[in-house]
Design goal:
Length: about 190
Amino acid sequence: MSTLDQMQAFVAVVEEGSFTAAALQFNISPTAMCKKVSMLEKSLNTRLLIRTPRLITMTDIGKKYYHQCKKVLHEYKLSHLLIEDKNTHLNGTLNIVCVREVAQKIVYPSMAVFLEQYPHIVTNVTLKKENHDIVLKNFDLAIGYENSEIFNDWCCRKIESLLLYYPNMKPIPLKIKVYMDYLNQDI
């Protein structure tokens, strides 16, 4: 049990006015909630709450600690929102190699709408007539080539009659998966 969990429990007890109501927020028993707060008090070597059968009140130091906990928990939540926000914006570079016909009929026409939906992804499209000219390590996705030994270590996804090759990675990088799913809707 982390100090952060204990701080969250302490704040919940203060705000709810009881261990029972606070325990409902955490989906734990009132006894477990009381234990979290007691462990916090023990680790701080100070009493934060005065408990009576009918009332829970904060000590003077408990009031000061409560306000500091609120600040810390707010900052903790903000830091998580920052990461969540970063993860909701797909970003990076998507390097695609394809034959000219596929680029003209499928990739280029769909690119504007795709980039509008995913503005943080930069796309580089390289045209190669023959697949034996392709250096796979330079690309995330190869579109429109016939099955060949060059793609033996890559995965293949078929969308209608179009073959899409991508590195054999688990999980599939999200920018590749999103683009393949987008093409699947668009074709």
